[in-house]
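Quick one:
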Amino acid sequence: MIYVFEGSRNSGKTHLSNYISDKYNIPRFQFNFSGYFNLLGLSSGENREAHSFSMGKELMLLQLAKEFSLSLPDFIHDRGIATVLAWGLYEKRITVEEMLEQIDYIQDNNLLDGIYLIRIKGKNPNNSDRNKDQWDFADLDSGEADCFDIVFDEFQKRGILKIFTVNNTFDEKGISEIDNLFDFITSTE
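Output:
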């Protein structure tokens, strides 16, 4: 099973995915988007090549998960298909119609089989300037979160299962919520 942690920047995805990785001894993978964008000279913004690169990476992962689900080890993936679609919308790399076509393709080909999407919602109350990467500007508005809402609403409309939402409160309540979720998931597998 692949557990894909999704959500806006500064929502605590990385912290919670590391926490679950350590607690359940599940390997964790985080694709080096910033490094590859820099290496390939991909710019942020209205850049079709950036979306194609990101979507290609994600489709390969989803197809691998589908075709080798019995032999792949469980792992946690920090950011996946919802991020690619949300950022495609947020940076105007794709239109809503193109996003819908891509979701239909993913669903029609059962590419979310063997995937749990864990949506992390929340905003870190520590508003320090993180200087993380070329997408730091997104920390300053709600546009990215709005695009995630659009993507997850479409997933729900299509009845895509295995989607869970955790409200990260950046305290013990947030940790308790992710613990309860993984206790539930691991007891039903």
